Amino acid sequence: MNGVVLISGGGSNLQSIIDNANAIDLEIKSVISNNPQAYGLERAKKANIPTHSVDHKQFNSRDEFDKTLGAIIDEYHPDIIILAGFMRILTKEFTNKYLGKMLNIHPSLLPKFQGLHTHQRAIDAGEKIHGVSIHFVTDELDGGPIIAQRSIEVLDDDTAESLAKRVLTEEHKLFPEVISWFTKGRLHLENNNAVLNGEIL
Ligand code: GRF
């Protein structure tokens, strides 16, 4: 399957997808960042993957940004669009256009802690368990049907940084696995449900 990966930052999830791409039948056609400084763009270049940066600061509206982003994505005819640490809110037009093809990773056990600063918020809320979720992207921010989650224990002396590090380790294992379900045709979005092997998750 052909995929496009959207990033905003360090790209450690992108790296785990690049490292597993062969095993999961994924050809990464392009990596696109809204942040021209994102280190993930270097990771993509090292792997000989075409990159684009679409700096959101150069656009007057979300709509204009999303249209430009969509035009670049469409050049690659992707079967799957992977949001791997992509930190922009997308318009309804955009999420509807790619409905059922777009997966996002979010560093919390959704529906808990949608949005930003999830690790600190989990600590502040006294959570004993925290983790990562992967979901289909719909027009609801961090709210589309959940496909898979992995949890870790929150330790008494955890900081947002130490927690983020252990959650990332789980992210790096889980994301390629979930993508492989999609590339193997086992995972679909049907009537706003995530369906794996014919069963609603
Ligand atoms: C990850 O924790 C991801 O879940 C979140 O942003 C972080 C990105 O990390 N949305 P990286 O760029 O993949 O290293």
Characterization of this structure:
The chain has a single domain (2-200), classed as 3-Layer(aba) Sandwich (Rossmann fold). The two termini are 23 Å apart. It is built from six helices and ten strands, in the order βαβαβαβαβαββαβββ. It has 201 residues and is of the alpha/beta class. It has helices at 12-20, 39-46, 62-75, 92-97, 118-124, 160-183; strands at 2-7, 27-33, 51-53, 80-83, 102-106, 129-136, 146-153, 187-190, 193-196, 199-200. Helix content is 34%, strand content 25%. The mean pLDDT is 97. 5-O-phosphono-beta-D-ribofuranosylamine is lined by residues 7, 9-14, 40, 84-85, 105-107, 168, 171.
Euclidean distance between termini CA atoms: 23 Å
Strand order across the largest sheet:
3-2-1-4-5-6-7
CATH architecture: 3-Layer(aba) Sandwich
pLDDT < 50 runs, ≥5 residues: none
Tally of DSSP β-strands: 10
- The 3D shape can be described as globular
Helical run tally = 6
CATH class: Alpha Beta
Along the chain, the helix and strand elements come as EHEHEHEHEHEEHEEE
Number of domains: 1
Bound molecules: 5-O-phosphono-beta-D-ribofuranosylamine
Helix content: 25-40%
Tell me the name of the CATH homologous superfamily.
Formyl transferase, N-terminal domain
Radius of gyration from the CA trace? 16 Å
Report the sheet-strand fraction: 25-35%
Sheet/helix structural class: alpha/beta
CATH topology tier name? Rossmann fold
Average pLDDT taken over every residue: 97
